[in-house]
């Protein structure tokens, strides 16, 4: 068995994990960062999802380092791509001109930028990254985790000892390994008092995950894939609460649940693109919705086709969760999700209705290069819901629901370590629930939500913080996950510097104020200006 030691171990290299590592490294600490794929970035890169953000993101509402990431992605395009003059001069360059975000970019570009951001610390020898490593065991000493053992691609276990261990895995995988108290799925209304919670807890009822893919369209060509073996099942699959077969262009409006037709016409003129989640989800035109390459952004003839990320409700996997099941069941669900995604592609190529009355778009072609894979599907599934720690503070729906809080705004937490904004956006679930999509107020991230009730040197650094199933719906998005991880990394480094433990910082008002002052100096925003939710 090989091994390493560091001040901070960050398990998981997604948005929260990278932000956590950078925060600790900026403060002079040594870090070991592990990641199950060969890309950093999680939902932004290996899961293939353009950033879901609030409409004020260009002005405020994120940490300085998250803004640096966004601008570095734009600078990558400005430096290396032949942009039109208009695009080159646009301060808010949106390479894909998608409606889901003001920064729709290729996953591979975001991965390259994140690799550049950590590069100096690799050169300095203060950061070690172990790709294709997943946690398999934890050394627990009372209320502390002394180390974690990982399984790597060469079959030899890799053991890391660290003063602080941060769980930034996509599913909260470290929590059961270390015996850290946690919850899964729906909590009950009796437990949380939440208006949208069920009467009884449903721990196996979780948001669907999705295996996304990238496509372009070459008119006059035929790139139809082989018919998937499970295509007949998925073609006819209709959840009881769905208005049509899942593989169709009719789906509920997430906010009203009314059956709503979508359009899908490659390269159809869409007019000016407005990426503003406060006006609507932006998902009515599926070609434009999550487009990450737009031909009009580049010099004429540079790219033959737009590139679109297929991350739509039609590929939300509902037959079962990835948490709380056997390894065999998990493998079956993962393969089922891939089959569903490929069935959706085959349906688009062969059966999707066209405006001319015909069916199918055989010119749709997978883009493996965009996703960094051999088959064009993302490196890993898009995970919306994780195990969640039992935390010193749990965020509940009525802390931030616009219907509950109204003009008062979200609850102001005295232990705030950042801010975020998104609707409470819960996709259909493995327990048979339709969308739960609730208007929310711009909210804060409480430090207590990062701290387990018992473990002394473990911090949540991603979607596994102290939210409920309901509030996970707005704390799971890109800039919020980044802020959560960045705060966790900063806290670990702060505690090492001052000889404190996280609970002491949380419980002592003076110590908390000193930490918050440090965060502010580092570019964290701890409170919102007066803006109304949506």
From TrEMBL:
Pfam families the UniProt entry points to: FAD_oxidored
EC numbers listed for it are 1.-.-.-
Q: Does the keyword Oxidoreductase apply?
A: yes
The record, for InterPro entries, names: NadB
Q: Does the keyword Oxidoreductase apply?
A: yes
A GO molecular function held by the record: oxidoreductase activity
Keyword terms: Oxidoreductase
What's the domain of life for this entry? Bacteria
Q: What is this protein called?
A: FAD-dependent oxidoreductase
């Amino acid at each position: 068995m090989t091994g390493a030691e560091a001040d901070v171990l960050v398990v998981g290299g997604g948005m929260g994990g990278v932000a956590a590592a950078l925060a600790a490294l900026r403060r002079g600490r040594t870090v070991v960062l592990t990641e199950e794929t060969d890309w950093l970035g999680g939902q932004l890169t290996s899961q293939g999802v353009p950033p879901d953000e609030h409409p004020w993101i260009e002005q405020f509402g994120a940490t300085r380092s998250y803004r640096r990431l966004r601008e570095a992605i734009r600078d990558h395009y400005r430096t290396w791509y032949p942009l039109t003059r208009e695009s080159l001069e646009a301060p808010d360059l949106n390479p894909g001109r998608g409606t889901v975000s003001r920064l729709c970019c290729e996953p591979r570009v975001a991965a390259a930028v994140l690799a550049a951001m950590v590069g100096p610390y690799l050169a300095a020898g203060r950061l070690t990254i172990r790709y294709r490593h997943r946690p398999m065991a934890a050394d627990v000493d009372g209320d502390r985790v002394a180390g974690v053992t990982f399984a790597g691609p060469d079959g030899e276990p890799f053991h890391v000892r660290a003063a602080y261990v941060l769980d930034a895995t996509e599913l909260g995988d470290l929590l059961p390994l270390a015996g850290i108290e946690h919850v899964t799925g729906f909590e009950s209304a009796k437990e949380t008092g939440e208006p949208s919670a069920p009467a009884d807890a449903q721990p196996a009822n979780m948001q669907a995950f999705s295996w996304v893919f990238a496509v372009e369209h070459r008119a006059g060509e035929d790139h139809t894939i082989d018919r998937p073996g499970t295509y007949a099942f998925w073609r006819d699959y209709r959840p009881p609460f769905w208005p049509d077969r899942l593989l169709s262009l009719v789906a509920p409006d997430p906010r009203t649940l009314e059956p709503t037709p979508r359009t899908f016409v490659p390269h159809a003129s869409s007019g000016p693109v407005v990426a503003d989640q406060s006006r609507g989800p932006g998902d009515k035109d599926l070609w434009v919705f999550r487009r990450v390459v737009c031909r009009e952004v580049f010099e004429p003839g540079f790219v033959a086709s737009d590139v679109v990320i297929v991350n739509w409700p039609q590929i939300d996997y509902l037959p079962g969760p990835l948490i709380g099941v056997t390894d065999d069941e998990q493998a079956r669900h993962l393969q089922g999700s891939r089959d569903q995604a490929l069935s959706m592609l085959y349906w688009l190529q062969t059966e999707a209705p066209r405006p001319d009355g015909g069916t199918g778009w055989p010119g749709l072609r997978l883009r493996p290069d965009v996703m960094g894979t051999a088959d064009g599907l993302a490196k890993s599934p898009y995970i919306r819901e994780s195990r969640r720690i039992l935390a010193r503070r749990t965020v509940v729906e009525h802390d931030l629901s616009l219907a509950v809080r109204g003009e008062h705004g979200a609850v102001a937490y005295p232990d705030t370590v950042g801010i975020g904004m998104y609707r409470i956006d819960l996709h259909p679930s493995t327990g048979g629930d339709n969308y739960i999509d609730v208007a929310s107020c711009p909210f804060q991230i409480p430090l207590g939500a990062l701290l387990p009730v018992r473990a002394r040197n473990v911090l949540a650094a991603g979607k596994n913080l102290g939210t409920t199933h309901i509030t996970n719906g707005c704390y799971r998005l890109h800039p919020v996950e980044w802020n959560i991880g960045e705060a966790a990394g900063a806290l670990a480094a702060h505690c090492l510097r001052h000889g404190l433990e996280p609970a002491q910082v949380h419980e002592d008002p003076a110590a908390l104020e000193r930490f918050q002052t440090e965060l502010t100096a580092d570019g964290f925003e701890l409170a919102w200006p007066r803006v109304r939710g949506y």
